[in-house]
TrEMBL record:
It comes from Linum trigynum. This is Late embryogenesis abundant protein LEA-2 subgroup domain-containing protein. GO terms for biological process: defense response to other organism. It is a single-pass membrane protein. SUPFAM superfamilies: LEA14-like. It is found in: Membrane.
Amino acid sequence: MSKETATRPTKLYFSIVFTVVFFISLILLICWLSLRPHEPKFHVHNFSVLGLADHGFESVRFVYNVSVRNSNRRVGISYDTLTTAIYHNGRPIGITPSFNSFDQEPKTTLYISHVLTGGAIAAAAGSGDTWKEIVGDRGSGKVEFQLELRTSLRYERTMWDLRRHGVRAKCQVPVGGDGALLAGYVGQECPS
C-alpha cells in the first residue's frame, strides 16, 4: 500500500469530523443568540423642569415619565433599587433612589414617573455656577440635561445566567425655555 492511499481515508475521516463539529457549533451559536435574555429598553416620554424661571435650585422640580420595556418572550426581570441622576454639562444636579426593587414579567412595559425636588437638587448641584449656566442656556431657548437611570437586574427563569447585571441608561433630555421636553425627543430610546 502506498503512502497516498493510506492518507486518503485519514483525510476523509478528518474532513467529516471537522464538518460535523462546524455545523454543531453553528447550531449552538444560533440557539444561544436566539435564547439569551435581552436587556430592557428605556424610553423618555416626558421630562419637564418646573420653576426654571425662579432664582435657584430650591424651588425647581424635575418631573419625568420613563417606560421600561422587557422584550424577552419567556424571561422576567428582577430589578434592584432604581437610581435616578440628572446632569447638566456633565455635573450632577440631583441623584436619588427612585424605586425600591421590583419585578417585570416577560413582554411587558412598565411606566415610571418621579419628581426630584429642591432640597436634593440644591445639595447635589453645589455651587451657583451651575444655576448661572442653566439660566444662560435658558436665555438661548434650549437647556441640555441628561437623565441617567441606574440599576442592577437579574434575569428570572433562564438557564444561561443568574448573576446580577448593572444597567445604566443615559437619556439626552433638552428642554425649551418653558422647561418642557423638546418635541423631537419625546419617546426617544435611551442608550444603555
